[in-house]
Amino acid sequence: MTEVKRVCVFCGAQPGHGPDHARLAAALGTAIAKRGLGLVYGGGKVGLMGVVADAALRGGAEVIGVIPEALMDRELGHGGVTDLRVVPSMHVRKALMNDLSDGFVVLPGGIGTLEEAVEIQSWSQLGIHGKGLVFLDTHDYWAPYFALLERMEGEGFIRPQHAGLALRAHQPDQALDLLAGWEPPQVTRWMTQTQV
Predict the structure, then answer these.
(1) Cα Rg for the chain, rounded, in angstroms?
(2) Cβ neighbours around 147 below 10 Å, total
(3) CA–CA separation, 130 and 153 (whole Å)
(4) Which of 34, 50, 57, 137 could cross-link to 142 by cystine, CB 3.0-4.6 Å?
């Protein structure tokens, strides 16, 4: 079990409709700070990214933002974080966020948020890392993703252990508790050879 010192949060650069998403992002940033953890995130000051970063900063947390050069203008890099790292590409961004973090929490977001979370789950399946991944899902935003994982498992494309690499929490403290207690499954093979 890896000690969690920094939590990477994937979330939208948009705020979403209604105040609930922003409230959830602020609650997560506050919970991270209260536990004395650091935050690693996408480096923007807008949308849910800005909300979670600002809440963590208000609580005294170390906040590291990682943003590609191409998105500095679009996502408006957050100049008030502890450490803002500008990197050359999305690939470098994701690799660095993984290197800096001990676990991952996914808030609501769009295609980019989904892509980041799915890649982290894939890396876990492949044994590239053994860190926890928790979807913070207070309003069932991520329910379709978990339904898709069940379909993948049911159709034989992933093993049950690999579907279980994505955890689900309904409150920030529950998400952080799941990360703290995470132990990766011991699966030696992720593919089954078949004859056609």
Answers:
(1) 16
(2) 10
(3) 20
(4) 137
**Residue whose structure tokens are 């010192």:** 5
d(CA 105, CA 142): 12
CA distance 104 to 120: 8
Cα end-to-end distance, the chain, whole Å: 40
DSSP H or E segment with residue 82: none
Which stretch of DSSP H or E encloses residue 130?
none
Residue tagged 């379709």 (tokens): 144
State the Cα torsion 179-183-189-192 to the nearest 10°.
-60
pLDDT tens for each residue of 46-66 = 999 999 999 999 999 999 999
Q: At what angle do helices 111-125 and 90-100 cross, to 10 degrees?
A: 60
Residue type, 153: E
Question: Phi then psi for 10, rounded to 5 degrees?
Answer: -100, 130
